[in-house]
Amino acid sequence: MDANTNSDVQKAEDLKLKANEAFKANKFSQAIELYSQAIELNSSNAVYWANRAFAHTKLEEYGSAVQDATKAIEIDPRYSKGYYRRGAAYLAMGKFKEALKDFQQVKKICPNDPDATRKLKECEKAVQKIRFEEAISVGDAERRLVADSIDYHIIEVEPQYAGPRIDGEEITLDFVKAMLDEFKKQKCIHKRYAYQIVLKTLELLRSMPSLVDVDVPNGGHFTVCGDVHGQYYDLINIFELNGLPSEENPYLFNGDFVDRGSFSVEVILTLFAFKCLYPKAMYLARGNHESKSMNKIYGFEGEVRSKLGEKFVELFAEVFCWLPLAHVINKKVFVVHGGLFSVDGVKLSDIRSIDRFCEPPEEGLMCELLWSDPQPQPGRGPSKRGVALSFGGDVTKKFLEDNNLDFIVRSHEVKDEGYEIEHDGKLITVFSAPNYCDQMGNKGAFIRFTAPEMKPDIVTFSAVPHPDVKPMAYANNFLRMFQ
């Protein structure tokens, strides 16, 4: 036996305890690093792998969580937490059938555990519901667009409605400001006006290409924001720090407007209203959370149903399919929610020609635009998320050279400072949801560009108070169990 073995085992256990403390303090990246050090010293302990899987889940790195939990199961096939962690990761990815198999194993190993019994029953219900929805779903060719069935003009506004009103067809700045105030008080606008905003936005988005060119005149400025994730009060704080959107103060919000945060309806109606008000000064890109599968899991679908009703669930799903996939500012800056591609040689013209009106596919250019992440090492690697890929600085450099661009701005990942600069300064991640999910403790950020130099000026900010409504408040109870 190696003389260091006992010493290594003890060191590994000490590292695990430190990792557990970091996890409790919501320092999940630090916890992963410490669990990794423990694994290097003692890789045959299933607990370390399962604990690291849980930390990966907290950072939404579900692909890595599945790998670690699988390793825990290989080490100890009777270790229930291995199946539990893997099932939770599958669940977060929307892979309900795979999750069900793992929770069945948990129940088999712990037949008298009431928690395992309850979660298995809920998982079975969720899978049954999905199978039923699949059975009754209508094929794309037969589906009539819900937007075509809505005429907001015939919806009556009751005399007792005391909120803001839109007179006629034009959405005005006065209306939008009054709407923002209503939302701050946790009130909603009348459904007629919500329909009017969403349908007008749909009309505008349908006329846009999949890749949008943005021109900022010399001396003009332009602001790019990352994920907002239903954090309405932090969105309002951005406007207080940087000014309301206007022709002189244009914005691009780079996807993931909804889900997780429980004020997603307020966020999306605000962004859409400004799009209606200033079509050339409010740009909106699709994120991976602007999709039915994510909205079903992470709360937006439940929130829409609660605040606006069932028909809006289908309507938002349609509108999200028309969101552009990427933007190029002044032929210099490529802005995309996720990242780059599994193959070299992708040109801007290839992105422009993507037929985007669909739910995001599980592979291909559209999937990679929405889901990919950068990695520090060169080349390409598997995704931490279990979808798309990770790409290195050499991939970034080649894409920029092939398309005569200066650098990339993307979002998609929570960052402690609200942003991170990688790949020799050629790639910036910007994330605009501070203290994400009320637990991450991160700052938010946005980026201001001034033409013609187009150098990024990064502004960071902290979270502001919001009403006592928890993140994921409208998600399925079963899904909240595992958050």
Provide a brief overview of the structure.
With 483 residues, the chain is of the alpha/beta class. Helix content is 45%, strand content 11%. A hairpin with a 3-residue loop joins strand 5 and strand 6.
Describe the model.
The chain has 18 helices and 14 strands. The strands form 3 sheets. Strands 1-5-6-10-12-11 form a 6-stranded mixed sheet. The protein has a 5-stranded mixed sheet with strand order 4-3-2-13-14, with helices on one face. It has helices spanning 5-24, 28-41, 46-58, 62-75, 80-92, 96-109, 114-136, 173-184, 191-206, 232-242, 264-277, 292-298, 300-307, 310-320, 348-352, 365-371, 393-402, 477-480; strands at residues 211-214, 221-225, 251-253, 282-284, 326-329, 333-336, 373-374, 380-382, 389-391, 407-410, 419-422, 427-430, 444-450, 457-461. Helix 2 runs antiparallel to helix 3 (46-58) and helix 6 (96-109) packs antiparallel against helix 7. The chain is globular. The two termini are 42 Å apart. Helix content is 45%, strand content 11%. It is an alpha/beta fold and 483 residues long. GO terms for molecular function: metal ion binding; protein serine/threonine phosphatase activity. Keywords: Cytoplasm, Endoplasmic reticulum, Hydrolase, Manganese, Membrane, Metal-binding, Nucleus, Protein phosphatase, Repeat, TPR repeat, Transmembrane, Transmembrane helix. InterPro entries: Calcineurin-like_PHP (IPR004843), Metallo-depent_PP-like (IPR029052), PP5_C (IPR041753), PPP_dom (IPR013235), PPP_phosphatase (IPR051134), Ser/Thr-sp_prot-phosphatase (IPR006186), TPR-like_helical_dom_sf (IPR011990), TPR_rpt (IPR019734).
